[in-house]
Amino acid sequence: MRAGARRRAWAGLLALVCLAALTGCGGAASATGVRPTVVIGAKQFTEQWIIGEMYKQALTKAGYDVELKNNIGSTEIIDGALTSGQIDLYPEYTGVILQVLARDESIPHSARDTFVKAKAFQEKRGLTMLEPTPFQNKNAVAVKPAFAKKYGLRTIGDLKKAGHVRFAEYPDNISGALGYTELVKKYGLTDTKVRSLNIGLQYKALDHGDVEAADVFTTDPQLARGNYTLLEDDKGFYGFQNVAPVVHKDVLEEQGPKFAETLDKVDALLTEKAVQQLNRAVDTVRLTPAEVAEKFLVANGLL
């Protein structure tokens, strides 16, 4: 049963109970102590799995009934799952909301303005957003240091100096507002050819010389080793990308104030350094996202 349908069924049952008892039933959760299950969604990469697990475990500890659904898909797909009631909330990147969902071509000049504008967009759709994380996970263009030095590359636009460039891009991001096609238009990269590679494989492709440039994420653990150079996005193509839970307004009302407070406590801990290490623990150390989330939450007193 979809999350939205579950909520409606739960509300209907509660109304019948109230009617049968011939009593006023004020706040649903406070009157019965029962809340509907909250379904959390996550996209199909490491960082989302970890954050989804953190939300699930922290909320479960706080007394909420929670289900986690991973690997839902791209921004458009998971947004569709949210708006259709298949899930109740998921962590999203603020700039992605504006650029991919709202299709806003004017990028705000600060991270806070991006969040405020993204939240205003979601509010019009019966959704809302909780406070954003300290960290951003932005797309970025990476090259090998030797390649950058050889051609004097500092910005993404400098790739034109290198002549023909093979560019690694993950399949879901070849087209779209933040994708390869729009990037090459923005920077005038007319002599660039895309190679579609799943997330994570672009680093091996760079190391082996199969591509000269690649779309990466700034919280990727591979970047901590210093083996790659990130080119400056001087045109601000990728925008600001803090993470915030997008949630149905009625879910917040049903679950009560402690629900949002719990998620805010988790997100407040997520600095760029912390998230990079969390991603490393899954991608390199090979712990499960659930294990990594649990260790982090325990260490920070939330479990």
Structure characteristics:
303 residues, 3-stranded antiparallel β-sheet, 13 helices, 10 strands, globular
Please give a structural write-up.
The chain has 303 residues and is α/β, with parallel strands linked by helices. The protein is 44% helix and 15% strand. The protein has 13 helices and 10 strands. The protein has a 5-stranded mixed β-sheet with strand order 7-6-8-5-9. Strands 3-10-4 form a 3-stranded antiparallel β-sheet. A two-stranded parallel ribbon has the order 1-2. The longest helix is centred in the N-terminal third of the chain and has 19 residues, at 3-21. The protein is globular, with a radius of gyration of 21 Å.
Brief summary of the model shown:
This protein has helices at 3-21, 28-32, 46-61, 75-83, 94-101, 111-123, 145-151, 180-187, 201-207, 249-255, 257-268, 272-283, 289-299, and strands at 38-41, 66-69, 89-93, 127-129, 139-143, 165-169, 192-196, 213-217, 229-231, 243-248. By secondary structure, it is of the alpha/beta class.
